[in-house]
Every structure is written in structure tokens, then in C-alpha cells.
Hints:
Elements: H1 7-13, E1 18-22, H2 29-40, E2 45-49, H3 53-61, E3 70-74, H4 82-93, E4 98-103, E5 121-125, H5 131-135, H6 153-166, H7 170-175, H8 178-200, H9 206-215, H10 226-233, H11 237-249, E6 253-258, E7 272-275, H12 284-305, E8 311-317, E9 323-330, E10 333-341, H13 349-357, E11 362-367, E12 373-376, E13 379-383, H14 384-387
Parallel strand pairs: 1-4, 1-5, 2-3, 3-4, 6-8, 10-11, 11-13
Antiparallel strand pairs: 6-7, 8-9, 9-10, 12-13
Helix pairs in contact: 8-9, 10-11
Amino acid sequence: MIKRYLEKYVLEDLRDKMVFISGPRQVGKTTLAKEIGEKSFRGDCAYLNWDNRADRKIILSETFPADKRLFIFDEIHKYRNWKNYLKGEYDKYKDKFSIVVTGSARLDIYRKGGDSLLGRYRSYCLHPLSLAELLGENADFSQLKGLVFSDKKKECAELCASLFKFGGFPEVFSRQEERALRRWHNERLDRLIKEDVRDIENLRDISALQVLAELLPEKAGSLFSLNSLREDLKVTHKTVSSWVEILERFYYHFRVYPFQNSRIKSLRKEPKLYLWDWSEIKDEGVRFENMMASHLLKFCGFLSDAQGYKAKLYYLRDKEQREVDFLVSIDNKPWFCVEVKLSSKELPSSLRYFADRLKDLLAFEVVKEEGVDFIRDNIRVISASKFLSALV
Length: 392
């Protein structure tokens, strides 16, 4: 059993609040919640899934088992009145039992007409497995003193290679079988659209949404234009924009936007698009960039959800078309930037430019090639297996 990186923080917050755990389908939300119930509540927990008829009856009738100290409500966001329901149950029973809510859609998107749950919950997004999480050496980021890299070269290299090939979703990563991976890709997309999306979103043409999802892997790592998709799908701009938003809310893809700063003459251009499951991408370079984007997004999410920092993931691009793949900022101040390459040949001029332009910016060129770690012109060129060990 892989110990998930959020377990400690979820347990701490359960002392005085509800905890919401969202994330992609099959990323391990339910497993994490049940593991907390078994370990910390000694099995005194009840799991109630809204998709199960018997469980739904218990939820609606409010006839909860009296001997349980933790209740896990899974997919309850599919219930139209879920926010008011949870508010009532929490206010009534917060001294008797704790509540964890899990869901395969972003649980903050349903706040319409005010948030009736304000002050009653903490929200986390559970990300796929990452190299540092698998190492089990997650650093303490309560204070941002810098990045600390692991010296376990062989283990880091093996984990990085497995993550690159099989992705970070626990089921397929644990099996590490190509046949199982192909079947899982087909099943995951089908269930995402025909079960999760269909149950909540009012869509007439569900098949067109599936066509869109099948087109997106080809768009990964590049500037994302809604107009080109609109032309491919022969629909209006408003329609394709709505479909893209839906897939993003259900954790199929995410977008990274350009960083805005007075020191950079930047244009408000399109975002870059990446998939939550990078193993779907065929091109080696794009898949590697996507894996880096996912690790950095997880790192920023952890700093925001668990540590309270205003951490954001961006990319850098200016009017002269100079571009760096990623920038991590804290309180809108640049912390470090990352350019991603398959191998180390020469330092990109754009990386040199932004490293000089932005004050106190740490600059990295992260390469897939193993055994690389040197500094040139204040830029650290480092293997991905070592760099990723310093994140979460």
C-alpha cells in the first residue's frame, strides 16, 4: 500500500472541519479516505456512495449507523441539494463524527448563490502518483527554504522511467503491464464521459464531447486554441468552450497560463494544455513535458491546499516569442522556472534571458537523460529523476 502524500494533512483537518477530496477518476480518493478510516479511526467508519441505491437511501433518510466515527460520502455532489445537506449534517453531528467527501469532479464548481459551507470544510485535490511520493521522502514545505534533492540515484531513475511509461494512476502504475494500460485508457475515458459527466451535465450530444476528448492528446504541450477545435468539430465557439470547461472540471486536462509581470513584455496569449494522464500521449518529448507539468501542478496544489501558500503554475512568453516551459510563483512572485528537454546540449537562450530578467529567479533545465547535474551561467541542468525527487 502506497502511503499517499495528503494523508497526514487530511487527518489534521478532520479534527475540526469536514474535508473534501476531489481529483480524477481512479486516482485513489476513496482508497485514501478508507485508509484514514482504518488507521486513525480503527475501522469505525462508514462508506456511503451516492451511486449505490442502498447507500443513497441511507443518505436521504439520514439513518446513519450509530457506532461510526467517520463517514465518507462519495460522489454526493451528484445530489442537487448536496451543499445544504452536508451543512445540516455537519452542524448537527460535528461533535459525534467526522465527515470526508470525495468526488471525481471539482467540488468548488457548484458554489452558486453563495457558499453555504463556508468555514466548515477544507478542500484538497488528490493528484496522481509522483516520484517524490513513491520515494516516501517528502520534504517539509511549511517554510520555503529551497529544493532538496534525493541521492538515491538508481531508485529515482527506475521510478522516473516507470512513471514516464505508465503514468501516475495507482492501478496501472502498480501493475505495469502495457496491455492493462491500453485497456485502462479506453475504459477510463468511456466511464468519465458516459457516467461522471452525463450524471451532472445536461448535454445533448455526449458523443461529440467524446470526440473532443480524443482530439485533446494531440494538443498537449502546445498553445491551445479554441478556434482550431471549433473548426475541427464544426460547432460554435461558445459550445466548444463549454465542452472544454466540462472536461477540465472532471480532471481530464488542465491548462497553464502565461505569467504576467511588469518586467516581461508579455502578451495575453492562449494557455498551454496538458492531460492528467500523460501516459496517453504518444510523442516522447510531449509526454515528458506533460509529466513535468503534472508534477509541478501537484507541487503547487500541495503548497496551496496543505500549506496555505498562494502557489501557481505558469509558463513564460513575451512579445519577442521567447518562451520557457514552466514558472512556479509564490504570492505572484517568481520562485523558479523550468525548461524541459530530452537531453542536455546547449542552454536555451530564452531560459538565459528570463533568468537574468527576473530577480532572484532559480532557473533549471530539466532533462530526461540520466546522470546530469551541473551549473552553467547560474542555470542548473539536472536529470528529471533527481529534480522531481525534490517536489511532492
